[in-house]
């Protein structure tokens, strides 16, 4: 049994494996644009607040050891999404300069007319190393840092973005909860901006 | 979306003769330039400061005498380029308004279909609109 999310991740890593080692941590511009487009009416509606609630509920429902509890399934496979590896300094929300280009590429996609009418949730995820509460705060601070950079440096409209820290609750590879692969920023396309546009006259 | 990319590719071919000048850097290129030219200085001088909210710029400015000439020049270029790209993208709606009304009437502009329409019609789109699309990096 492989969840659709894992299969998505596998497909993504397979797609990248042909490229040089550097590409393992960076999606191409077209992969970012493609990953974030195509939101359909049948996709589930999800808000940043709902995600936060799910995390809180999961944490109180499964207070046990990290290695014994299940990974939280957000069931957002139907939403357009990308997993990006943004490099942060150790135990900090400071984005490494090596990831500035990736942030810019995400902004390029969000400024593309194909995505112009959409809003997004930027989530931060850690692996299960370290205290659970610390990881929740760290992941929120990291998601905030990404959103701040997109808004204040790369001019993405702030009303299109929300940051959600998912802590160590949503693992990319639940079988390897301590694997660094679980540390990632995930971006979801969650809905349209404002009322539908008027026809061109 | 394949159709859109084919349209884009077709538009690119048609447009390459129209306007090769005044292209702006993409946001990704600007970020990569900043990382390449300023990464070492940032890691050395401002390692605990984040990129957003003007914090990094303020920190680097406060230590400007220790910042390499290359970084100073390219940091300014990256910021200027981002502003130029942003302005070019904002300007399209206004500059291409008449072309859109003439060439894409009745279209509900969403998901990039208006751009596809204008790219498809490149040969009959006004020079200023074609230039605006180029400057915005939408080819």
Automatic annotation (TrEMBL), chain A:
Main localization (coarse): membrane
Keywords: Cell outer membrane, Membrane, Signal
The keyword Membrane belongs to this UniProt entry's keyword annotation: yes
Keyword Membrane: yes
Cellular localization per UniProt: Cell outer membrane
Species: Aquabacter spiritensis
Residues making up the signal peptide according to the UniProt record: 1-23
Protein name: Outer membrane protein OmpA-like peptidoglycan-associated protein
One cellular component term from this protein's GO annotations in UniProt: cell outer membrane
Domain named OmpA-like: residues: 75-193
CDD domains, sorted: OmpA_C-like (cd07185)
SUPFAM superfamilies: OmpA-like (SSF103088)
PANTHER family: LIPOPROTEIN YIAD-RELATED, STATOR ELEMENT OF FLAGELLAR MOTOR COMPLEX
TrEMBL record, chain B:
Listed InterPro entries: GLG1
Keywords: Signal
Signal peptide: 1-19
PANTHER family recorded: GOLGI APPARATUS PROTEIN 1 (PTHR11884:SF1), SELECTIN LIGAND RELATED (PTHR11884)
Protein name: Cysteine rich repeat protein
Species of origin: Aquabacter spiritensis
């Amino acid at each position: 049994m492989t969840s659709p999310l894992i299969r998505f991740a596998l497909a993504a890593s397979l797609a990248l494996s042909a490229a040089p080692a550097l590409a393992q941590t960076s999606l191409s511009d077209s992969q970012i644009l493609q990953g974030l487009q195509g939101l359909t009416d049948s996709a589930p509606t999800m808000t940043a607040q709902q995600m936060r609630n799910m995390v809180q509920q999961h944490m109180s429902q499964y207070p046990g050891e990290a290695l014994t509890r299940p990974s939280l399934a957000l069931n957002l496979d139907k939403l357009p999404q990308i997993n990006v590896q943004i490099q942060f300094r150790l135990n900090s929300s400071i984005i490494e300069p090596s990831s500035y280009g990736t942030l810019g590429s995400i902004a390029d996609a969000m400024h593309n007319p194909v995505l112009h009418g959409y809003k997004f949730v930027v989530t931060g995820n850690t692996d299960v190393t370290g205290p659970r509460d610390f990881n929740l705060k760290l992941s929120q601070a990291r998601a905030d840092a990404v959103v701040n950079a997109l808004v204040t440096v790369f001019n993405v409209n702030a009303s299109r973005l929300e940051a959600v820290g998912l802590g160590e609750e949503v693992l990319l590879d639940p079988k390897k909860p301590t694997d660094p692969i679980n540390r990632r920023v995930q971006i979801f396309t969650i809905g349209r901006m404002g009322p539908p546009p008027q026809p061109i006259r | 979306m394949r159709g859109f990319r084919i349209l884009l590719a077709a538009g690119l071919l048609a447009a390459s003769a129209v306007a090769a000048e005044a292209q702006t850097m993409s946001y990704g290129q600007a970020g990569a330039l900043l990382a390449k030219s300023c990464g070492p200085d940032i890691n050395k001088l401002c390692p605990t400061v984040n990129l957003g909210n003007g914090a990094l710029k303020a920190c680097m400015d406060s230590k400007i005498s220790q910042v390499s000439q290359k970084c100073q020049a390219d940091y300014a270029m990256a910021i200027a380029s981002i502003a130029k790209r942003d302005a070019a993208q904002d300007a399209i709606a206004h500059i291409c308004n008449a072309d859109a009304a003439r060439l894409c009437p009745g279209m509900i502009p969403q998901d990039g279909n208006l751009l596809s329409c204008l790219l498809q019609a490149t040969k009959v789109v006004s020079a200023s609109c074609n230039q605006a699309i180029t400057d915005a990096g939408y080819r």
